[in-house]
Structures are given as C-alpha cells and as structure tokens.
Amino acid sequence: MRTETASAADQAAAPRPADWEQARSRVYAVGLAAAPPAVERPLAEADGHTLAEPLTTRTDLPAFPTSSVDGWALRGAGPWRVVGRVLAGTTPAPLTEDGTTVEIATGAMVPEGTSAVLRVEDSTRTPDGLVDGVPRTAPEWRRPGEEASAGEELLPAGTPVDPAVIGLAASCGYDTLRVRRQPRAALLVFGDELLTAGPPAAGRVRDALGPAVPAWLRRYGCQVRPADVVGPVADTLAAHVAALRTALADADLVCTTGGTMHGPVDHLHPSLAALGADYVVNTVAVRPGFPMLLARLVDADGRVRFVAGLPGNPQSAVVALVSLVAPLLAGLAGRPMPVLPHATLAEPVPGRGDYTHLALVRLDRVAGTAYPVRHVGSAMLRGLSGADGFAVIRPDTNGAAGDRVPVVPLPLLPGERAW
C-alpha cells in the first residue's frame, strides 16, 4: 500500500481513485503519525478523551478483604461472644479467640482471624447475648485481588474514556489519567446556492450539512464549537483560501462541504494548492461519494493539520465521513483502527462495478441481519435517517441475500455501543 502524499498542484487535475479499503488504512496511518502528545487530565476532565497508556491496578482489587454483607465476622465454632464492631473505613483488631465475633458492616475490612461471615438475617441472639446461626457455604466477603491483582492491565492504551472507565480508574486509586486530547474540528460550508434558514425555493436549496456534520464529528470524539462552523463561504478562490487559513489556525481537522470536483466554482483544489497542502487521498473508488479527499498541511514547526473535502450531496458527505474522517480521527486520538462488524444481507444489494458500494442498511442486531433501506440517492437524507450503517459491497461483486458482509456503523453518542 502506498503511503506517500502528492502535492495538490500535482494531483488535482487527474487523480486516480484510491481503493476504499486502502484509503481507510492510509488515512488512519497518517492520523496516528500526527497524534498529539499525551497530557495529564484530572478524572473529572477526562471524559471523551483516549487512554494514552494502559490502565493498570495500583493495588490488588479489592486491596483488603471486604465484607459483602451486614452481619457478623466469626472465629471458630458458635455461639459467639460479641467483642466489638467494625465499620467501613476502619482497620479492625484481629480476632484472636475462638468463639468470638464482631459486628461488621458491608464494605468493612474483615478482621484477621475471621473464619466466616454470618449474615445478620441468618443470625439470632441467645438469652445471654451470644450470636448464633449457621453461616452460608459461599464466602460472604471479597478476597484481595478477586477483581484484579496489583499491576494487572485492565484496559489497553487507545481505550476511549467514558464514565465506566473513569469510575474504574478511581477505584484503582487514580486522581489523573494520561490521555490524548480530543481533536478539534471546524466546518466550512461552500456553495452560494445554499439557504441557512427556511424552506428551499427559487433555485436555492437548504444547507443540510452545516447543522449535521458538527454533530457527526462530535460523535466521533471531536470538539466542535458553534463558532467553528462557517458558511456559506462565497464562491471565489480568495474567499475559500481565507476561510481555510483562518480555520486551520486553531483546528486539527477542517471539513469542507462541496467543491471537491473541478467545476467553474469548485475552488477547493486550487485553495489547497495555494496553501501548500499535500493529498493523502484524492478521490476514492466508492459509490456514492467518490470525489472525497483528505489533504495534509505541515507547518514549519512540524504541526500537522488536515482538510477533509466532503462532497456537497448529503449522503455522499456522510460516506466521506465514515470512509476518511472516522479512521483519521481514530488515528489522531491514538485509538485502534475501527474494526468493521459483519451482518447477513436479508435482501440482494447490487454492486457498483469496480467501485466499492456503501449501501445504507437497517440492522436487526438480534438476528445479525442487514436490510437495505429506500430513498438512498446521494442527495437524499430520508434513507440515512432510518439507517444504522452502510453494508460494504466490494468491487466487482454483488451482494446476494444470505451473504455475510462488513458493515460500517454510523457513529453513536460517546459511550454507546452498537453491537
């Protein structure tokens, strides 16, 4: 697989579409190479970031024997004489005499010398104040290291940090986590024909990507502020260059919509050439959405930024997001390359010749089947709104009912799991 880039000026005129799978791998590799340095973040500020190093236990988990019930810590045979009480957060004295017990609370440290823990609901008191009862067969306390041993790796580097990870880190005794920060993204909307409010009319269409793309990017783990969404940008080369230069000053990734072809008002390629960008990918052999691109700019100080050119048709733009932007962002965050799940086609899906076909599908996750949806033209959003992802029909093939095919899931909210 080729990983080198070519200048925008060299490749803009007659690009050869990249194989879809190779394009995904290529953009992931350049994203991973450009991943920002790890930073230390307090647990309260780590949500949405990515572990930059494995999460290991600092002690055994639990660190000491812990009662899992309210009851009595016993030594020897009963009935037992009560010699004290143990509450959570204290270090108890050992039980040194057979026939003795201490009252114990859930979560309290089990005293040394304990032979069993008797649940309070299984106990009785004799007239002379002794505790009597029959402990259950299963131990009623958690032993040190039952969940994990000291130094054991619990989660690998590259794991997204969510509330469950934060809670686990806290239980291990961490106050901060070493993480890779969320990439920052911006969006430039190109096209004088676009309306930003009201219904389409008089030859002008409503911009659907300006409101939608930032939400997709956030689901991929990006930071996108309202001020980072600009447009429609005037259909002039000067306006495009100025908008890109301003957005690139702060963003790690700038997405653009429209202008990826070579029409009379398509100024993205000349703008990239003017800025000295190199192409990572310039068009992809995928339908819909083939005129997508990813370009890279490197400052004199070595800082790397990216421009993702999304086609102007809404569904094609989303195809570009799942094809190029998702693996790029995984690399920038230091996460593993997304592995595609598989599903069984419930109905035939045609191929697109020597291009990969990404076909919108609805998933039955219980049965593991994928159903093609209707209204899937590249300019349509109706089918997309009811879909869970794209079935991948490889070049020079057709998808028959019963075939197992890869599926590119649409991004969910952080922490949600699709499969």
From TrEMBL:
Enzyme category, top tier: transferase
Recorded GO CC terms: cytosol
Xref: SMART domains: MoCF_biosynth
Residue spans of biased composition, Low complexity class: 1-17
GO molecular function: metal ion binding; molybdopterin molybdotransferase activity
InterPro entries: MoaB/Mog-like_dom_sf, MoaB/Mog_dom, MoeA-like, MoeA_C_domain_IV, MoeA_C_domain_IV_sf, MoeA_linker/N, MoeA_linker/N_sf
Pathway entry: Cofactor biosynthesis; molybdopterin biosynthesis
Region spans: Disordered: 1-21, 125-156
Stated family: Belongs to the MoeA family.
UniProt cofactor(s): Mg(2+)
PANTHER family named among the record's database cross-references: GEPHYRIN, MOLYBDOPTERIN BIOSYNTHESIS PROTEIN
Keyword Metal-binding: yes
Descriptive protein name: Molybdopterin molybdenumtransferase
Domain MoaB/Mog: from-to ranges: 186-331
Keywords: Magnesium, Metal-binding, Molybdenum, Molybdenum cofactor biosynthesis, Transferase
EC nos: 2.10.1.1
Function: Catalyzes the insertion of molybdate into adenylated molybdopterin with the concomitant release of AMP.
One BP annotation, GO: Mo-molybdopterin cofactor biosynthetic process
Superkingdom per UniProt: Bacteria
Pfam entry (one): MoeA_N
Catalytic function, reaction form: adenylyl-molybdopterin + molybdate = Mo-molybdopterin + AMP + H(+)
